[in-house]
Amino acid sequence: MGLFNVTHPAFFLLTGIPGLESSQIWLAGPLCVMYAVALGGNAVILQAVRVEPSLHEPMYYFLSLLSFSDVAMSMATLPTVLRTFCLNARNIDFHACLIQMFLIHSFSMMESGILLAMSFDRYVAICDPLRYATVLTNEVIAGMGLVVIARSFVILFPLPFLFKRLPTCRSNVLSHSYCLHPDIIKLACADITINSIYGLFVLISTFGMDLLCIFLSYVLILRSVMAIASCEERLKALNTCVSHILAVLAFYVPMIGVSTVHRFGKNAPRYIHVLLSNVYLFVPPVLNPLIYSVKTKEIRRAIVRMFHRIKM
User: Fold this and answer.
1) How many whole angstroms separate alpha carbon 245 and alpha carbon 235?
2) 144/121 Cα distance (integer angstroms)
């Protein structure tokens, strides 16, 4: 008990799936498969965009940024998830936990910003195609990428320091196999009003505004598409957006579920919190490369050519 006489515990204890602790080793296999698909699939897309000249276009540059954020997200959670499920090594150093929390939320915000940039790309391509090449130049794409990356780190930089000022004396057991801000903040035994307000501000000003802008861009896209006389041309235009729409749904639906349960589902069973958080972190990195590989023929062709060259 002497550990909790100080302001912060030396370490936190991570949790796998509540109630399934004895059989967690059997979940290690599926988790390893998910990480392999996420890391391997996104690495293949990054390499395909890099080596294939036909993919040196704005849409695919943004896709490579999305793949990078998915790889980074997977790498941020992989060490603690596999240690918890494979080795039953549950402890994580206090400061390492804060770093992991910062990285997970930063890369999540980065993915949100990239999805917004991709919606702008689709808006220009469909609503103003004649100016597409002049609006989305390499300099503009690089600038948008830098803004997205800088925003995710600058806005979330205060988060670990806001938590460090609070004493942590209730417990040192977390609800997941990784560190999330809503989970850590529940362990503080002081007024967390500032932390909650800042967390809500970050959620609304970034994720909320990104989702609103994505929605508005698709309202404008639909209006432009409906003005096309040919039904075939309408379907062709909308088909270029399908992959992006699926990626947006794969990211935002679990995120909204997690935020809703954490803020309003205090009495919900613990496994609901754990399940939604795992879906939120694991599903987008796994689905995104599959979505774009299946739905985008240019990506499929580039991947086939790339593996053919490797085989030769």
Assistant:
1) 14
2) 11
SS3 173: strand
* Rounded Cα gap, residues 71 and 24, in angstroms: 24
Which contacts of 292-298 are long-range, i.e. CB under 8 A and separated by 24 or more positions? Answer: 292/45, 292/63, 292/243, 292/247, 293/41, 293/45, 295/242, 295/243, 295/246, 296/243, 298/54, 298/55, 298/60
What are residue 252's DSSP bridge partners?
A: none
Q: Measure the CA–CA gap between 42 and 81, rounded to whole angstroms.
A: 19
Could you give the CA distance from residue 239 to residue 295 in angstroms, rounded to a whole number? 9
Backbone angles phi, psi at 265, to 5 degrees: -105, 50
> H-helix or E-strand containing 59?
helix 58-86
Residues 6+ apart with CB under 8 A from 277: 176, 180, 258
Q: What angle in degrees, to the nearest 10, is found between the helix axes of 297-311 and 28-51?
A: 90
Q: Is residue 268 classed as helix, strand or coil in its secondary structure?
A: coil
pTM of the model: 0.91
* Chain segment 127-151, per-residue pLDDT in tens: 988 999 999 999 999 999 999 999 9
Q: 91-122, pLDDT tens digit by residue?
A: 999 999 999 999 999 999 999 999 999 999 99
- Assess contact for 280 and 253: CB atoms under 8 A: no
Q: Output the pLDDT for position 4.
A: 42
Predicted local confidence at residue 37, as pLDDT: 93
Provide the residue type at 217 as one letter: S
- Domains, the chain, ranges and CATH? 10-161+191-311 (1.20.1070.10)
Dihedral, CA of residue 83, residue 86, residue 88 and residue 92, to nearest 10? 10
For residue 159, give the amino acid letter: L
- Identify whether the C-beta of residue 12 lies closer than 8 Å to the C-beta of residue 175: no
